[in-house]
Amino acid sequence: MQRTRDEILSDIELWAKERLATGEQTIYLGSGGNGRMGVLADGRMEGEEQSSGRGDENDRHTISEIKSNNLKKTTASAKTSSARIPSPPPSAHTPIPPAAGIPAPRTTSAATRNPQPEIRSSQTPNPTPQTPAPWLSATDLPTLQSLISSCTKCELHKTRTNFVFGVGNPNAKVMVIGEAPGKDEDEQGEPFVGRAGQLLNKMLAAINFPREEVFIANILKSRPPGNRDPKPEEVAACEPYLWKQIEIIKPKMILCVGRIAGSNLLKTGDESLAKMRGKVFDFMNAKVMVTYHPAALLRNPNWKHGAWEDLKQFRKLYDELVGNREAGS
Ligand code: URA
Less Cβ around it within 10 Å: N or C end of the chain? Predict the structure, then answer.
């Protein structure tokens, strides 16, 4: 049965109050929104899960996998394409000791898991020497935006209303990356402005990152019709823009929301969300974690417990790396 946003938020608040009453967890109260808590758990264990947040059912993992917390790592399909040549891999970072009640993030070998991109225009169909696309030399976000917003590299330009560049603090230490604009985002030209966006704001506020302090973008900058999954050729055309944004912003940490965002950024192939959650990846000098997509949490409130654990890990790692518990920038 469909639950209303208010019902979900009430559950979240109730759960947060219970947590505070037991004194077992630190809960970050956000200053954004209505001053209400962001995404938290309803106290239940997460069960079988299914999706990346945009309607697909590709993220299944079993309850026993979750409970055993013994998810075997798979080898990344370290794919390369004409648009991407991995540069020498960075070394994996030192594991961070857990705080009370917060499981230590599992770290990955960046050398095998996620090749670092070389930013190039994906439009290199003919072998004659070409002058580099002007956007490649952009050094600030407004310039980049003005140079790429009329992009026609993939079919999606024919159906989009707006090119959804991204929004937020150009000096953000935290970037949040989703999958692709939905209907509301396409209409308004801004990522995460619909129901999922409202919940994302509360998730961020719950770990003391107001929306304005972070930078929010998507793997794709144009809406796939009917919110279907991005096609590989659309990702290949669009992802260099995201890499360029990361290069300009230089975030310390990136939160990918949903399996599709995580697997496309990190090139983890068809690895499930379950296997990406709880790990820390290296990508373009940022630490990356993957959690549930807020749309998935709206559909499956029993996953909020897991999302809250992920968010706490993310904040804890941020505090260790940046040493500032109060602000996201
Ligand atoms: N879902 C996404 O992945 N991105 C948006 O911008 C909105 C919904």
Answer: N
- Was domain 5-69+76-91+101-120+137-322 assigned CATH 3.40.470.10? yes
Distance 107 CA to ligand 1 centre (A): 27
Put the strands of the sheet holding 215-218 in their side by side order: 106-107, 279-283, 286-291, 253-257, 174-178, 215-218, 167-168
Domain boundaries, the chain: 5-69+76-91+101-120+137-322
Q: Where are the alpha helices (DSSP H) in 189-255?
A: 195-206, 232-249
CB 178 near ligand 1, within 6 Å? yes
Report whether pLDDT(38) > 60.
Answer: no
Q: Residue 298: is it exposed, middle or buried by C-beta count within 10 angstroms (0-12/13-18/19+)?
A: buried
The response to whether residue 166 sits with its C-beta less than 6 Å from ligand 1 reads no
Whole-number Å distance, alpha carbon 190 to ligand 1 midpoint, is 9
Q: Cα(11) to centroid of ligand 1, in Å? A: 23
As to burial, measured by CB atoms within 10 angstroms (0-12 exposed, 13-18 middle, 19+ buried), residue 195 is middle
User: Band of the pLDDT at 310, cuts 50, 70, 90?
Assistant: very high
pLDDT in tens, 62-120: 333 333 333 233 323 323 232 332 332 333 333 333 344 444 445 554 434 556 788 87
Which pTM was predicted?
0.71
